[in-house]
Specification:
The protein is of the alpha/beta class. Helices cover 36% and strands 27% of the residues. The two termini are 39 Å apart.
Length: 298
């Protein structure tokens, strides 16, 4: 039995395991029951969240940005220092500064505040803690600065995740937005062209590369990504070797630019033909930036 469970969202992920989105949604929904948890903290900007909140359950606390909720935020601002907003926490108003990037982290902060508040944590304590939050490894994590540009790594490996991460980077980018990404092998193939199209629409230039090809041909995966990006732009290049793709991208950076290396986040391997080879996006970025006398962030 859980004291509290938080529902963040339900997007098309893990479908290789669940088979289809309806099954995945039902599984997520099934845990939000009165005999399983006391408090249900639910994002009502998500369609499944609205359904959960409408199930007639006890002790449901809602949060969101767009739809009416018990806990919500207004005046959301995003810059290179992170996000700031005004929170309404059960009609208590407070200014919040969060040194993390992206609107998705505003949602996360609302969920945390809602959960902590029902357990008796005071708002001033929450605000102070949020202000001191450190970047989460591999999650919109700033890892280096070079030639007046910034480099981030992120775990985004779904269409929804890539869109949210690129949208967040676009809002703080003063120059061109570059994106390095690939797609994993032996996973949902239908997402590959979608992710290509998303990158092509939001990024100024995309470098398509290999991710974890597993037992698939990396170039076959790349061709499927290309089928999506070609619909919207010609501003991309294919570099199969991920290390070379990152090096190429870093060398293109100018003042105000942002490079997002997406897909692997804090992973420290690349899976090829059943073997997990040592590989870290963060380490590769750090090596290239160091060799160019740039700044590696801790």
């Amino acid at each position: 039995f859980f004291e509290a469970l938080i529902f963040t969202n339900c997007t098309e992920d893990h479908l290789d395991y669940f088979g289809d989105f309806d099954t995945y949604s039902r599984v997520k929904r099934s845990i939000f029951k009165d005999n399983i948890c006391k408090y249900k903290i639910v994002n009502v900007d998500d369609a499944l969240g609205v359904d959960i909140a409408s199930d007639g359950l006890a002790n449901v606390v809602t949060y969101g940005l767009d739809n009416p909720a018990d806990v919500f935020a207004v005046n959301v601002e995003e810059d290179k220092n992170g996000v700031s907003f005004i929170i309404n926490l059960f009609d208590l108003i407070y200014d919040i500064s969060l040194p993390l990037f992206g609107k998705f982290n505003v949602y996360n902060a609302l969920a945390v505040c809602a959960c902590a508040a029902i357990e008796g944590v005071k708002m001033h304590t929450l605000a102070g803690a949020l202000k001191k939050v450190k970047p989460i490894s591999g999650r919109a994590e700033p890892v280096a600065e070079y030639n007046g540009a910034s480099v981030f790594i992120d775990y985004a490996h779904t269409p929804d995740g890539l869109k949210k991460s690129l949208d967040a980077m676009k809002k703080i980018c003063g120059g061109k937005l570059y994106c390095v990404f690939g797609c994993g092998g032996n996973r949902e193939k239908e997402k590959r062209p979608l992710m290509g199209e998303i990158a092509g629409i939001i990024a100024d230039f995309t470098i398509i590369t290999s991710d974890n090809p597993r037992y698939e041909d990396p170039l076959s995966i790349i061709r499927e990504i290309e089928s999506g990006i070609r619909k919207v732009t010609k501003n991309y290049i294919v570099i199969r070797d991920r290390k070379n793709a990152i090096g190429y991208s870093v060398n293109k950076l100018c003042r105000g630019d942002i490079l997002l290396v997406a897909g692997k986040g804090a992973e420290k391997y690349q899976e090829v033909l059943g073997v997990k080879l040592e590989f870290s996006d963060k380490a590769v970025v750090s090596d290239f930036v160091s060799s160019l006398n740039g700044k590696v962030l801790s």
